[in-house]
Request: fold
Amino acid sequence: MTSEDKIRQAFENKNWQEIKVTDSWQIFKIMAEFVDGFEKMAKIGPCVSIFGSARTKNDNPYYTLSETCARLLTERGYGVISGGGPGIMEAANKGAYEAGGKSVGLNIELPFEQFHNKYIDRDKVMQFDYFFVRKVMFMKYSQGFIILPGGFGTMDESFEAITLIQTGKIARFPIVFVGTDYWGGLFKWIEDKMLNTENNIKADDLNLYRVVDTAEEAVEHIFRFYDKYVLKPNF
Reply:
């Protein structure tokens, strides 16, 4: 079905039977994804999610940064969750897998560019049709978030985490953006426009995240956060 077909279909009148059958089966499919995700993720233990672009090549410095972040997290007993695809996600799973840690992949079925990478533990590969179900798994089962350069999907996932923490829907887990050169302009705009010009956020909201440049700084922020509460991974 082309994009134009989908637009036309959205404006077509549907009879009650079509609505009932289509929506009812969709509900069961959504429920199945939630149940499967909850059952698998609940057994994994404390993890940190690493977000970033699927398009990043393995010779890109950010690929290496993602790999290093995952390795350092694994050495401290954390599992690593990625979106399961190539690029930054592959690097995260590779770093965890090669260091002998738990490597989780929450893959989304897309018509292009997304396929699960080979560094995910076999029993921790999950396939999703729905972005919102997948995001619930990230938010519910992560004890921290590391965000490397990415596109719209990366921003969607990272700002979902910030929003849920800001509104008190999840606990105040550490969020770290890696790459001041990449993210600096965005957060300057947030401070200048959202905060100072329009007053759409509070000054304390700027403390919901940290922007750093190295893998060591990123993971150390997470380690310090949990050391403060004397919390350790329970593997």
About this structure: The mean pLDDT is 90.
